UniProtKB/TrEMBL annotation:
The keyword Protease does not apply. It comes from Marinobacter flavimaris. Belongs to the shikimate dehydrogenase family. It catalyses: shikimate + NADP(+) = 3-dehydroshikimate + NADPH + H(+). Shikimate binds at residues 16-18, 63, 88, 104, 221, 250. This is Shikimate dehydrogenase (NADP(+)). InterPro entries: Aminoacid_DH-like_N_sf, NAD(P)-bd_dom_sf, SDH_C, Shikimate_DH, Shikimate_DH-bd_N, Shikimate_DH_fam, Shikm_DH/Glu-tRNA_Rdtase.
């Protein structure tokens, strides 16, 4: 039997863990999946996608810096991709139309709720950052019906724009925007979606946002404790998670979309943690 071909497209791409994650899913499920990494030229993401599907490829994951371009390129988008404004999963539908989905939000929600047992329903959530990464996950987090989501960002106008964008799908959840210095009460869950740590920075938050039971979630991950989680631990946080589980869960949801089977994620998360 020949394998069906999948790939992740980005630039750069050599660091990507997706080929490893999907080959673990393939062995676990016995699905005939071959998954590679493709570095698209910055000027020709569209050509790379076209060529991949013309050669019979079945599905693509999309990563930095092409997620918005993937969203624009698609002929149709799922509702969660529409809200996210970015796509990390592409495939051809039954009519051969290029379809975009976004599994990042589903990934973070599953990691928090299923893997870490964190209740988001009725929770007071502080989200740090208002870029593409945060926009990508707000819809699925809102669907869990938290009591409030406060979006804090260095550029407050970007946080305000997200509040405006998501208010129509916010239901009973109170959505608000502010700067980093403003929040001074404890939250149930704090999600770091800024890229500040890439510059060795920390959002200038008050330690008052952290109480004993506050769950800290950094969407970044690294071998050592992330910069943000280290800061949170120093302020007395007792529950800190990084984004490795989110990475595996978003991959599992892409695999489910393509293959109709949900792979078990826990053994894969453990295997990657031990790499
Ligand atoms: P991504 O796709 O990773 O979300 P992005 O859209 O460029 O990338 O957004 C990066 C986010 O990290 C933004 O919220 C950004 O704040 P601004 O909107 O004010 O630019 C935030 N960020 C980046 N560097 C930061 C830093 N040094 N301190 C605090 N926030 C930072």
């Amino acid at each position: 039997m020949t394998n069906d071909l999948y790939a992740v497209v980005g630039n750069p791409i050599s660091h990507s863990k997706s080929p490893r994650i999907h080959s673990l899913f393939a062995s676990e499920t016995g699905e005939p999946v071959e998954y590679t990494a493709i570095q698209a030229p910055l000027y020709d993401f569209a050509g790379t996608v076209k060529q991949f599907f013309e050669r019979g490829g079945k599905g693509l994951n999309v990563t930095v810096p092409f997620k918005e371009e993937a969203w624009k390129l698609a002929d149709r988008r799922t509702e969660r991709a529409e809200n996210a404004g970015a796509a990390n999963t592409l495939f051809l539908d039954d009519d051969g139309l290029l379809t975009a989905d976004n599994t990042d939000g589903c990934g973070i929600v599953r990691d928090l709720v299923v893997n870490h047992g964190v209740a988001l329903k009725a929770a007071r959530i502080l989200v740090l950052g208002a870029g593409g990464a945060v926009r990508g996950v707000l819809g699925p987090i809102l669907a869990e019906q938290p009591s409030s989501i406060t979006i804090a960002n260095r550029t407050v106008a970007r946080a305000e724009a997200l509040v405006e964008l998501f208010t129509p799908v916010a239901g009973e959840t109170r959505l608000s925007a502010c700067g980093f210095e403003q929040p001074d009460e404890p939250f149930d869950v704090i999600i770091n979606g800024t890229s500040a740590s890439l510059q060795g920075d920390l959002p200038p938050l008050s330690s008052k946002v952290i109480a004993q039971g506050t769950v800290i979630y950094d969407m970044m991950y690294s071998l050592q404790t992330t910069t943000f989680n280290q800061w949170a631990l120093e302020q007395g946080a007792q529950i800190v998670h990084d984004g490795l589980g989110m990475l595996v869960e978003q991959a599992a949801e892409s695999f489910r979309i393509w293959r109709g089977i949900s792979p078990a994620t826990r053994p894969v998360i453990e295997e990657l943690r031990n790499d």
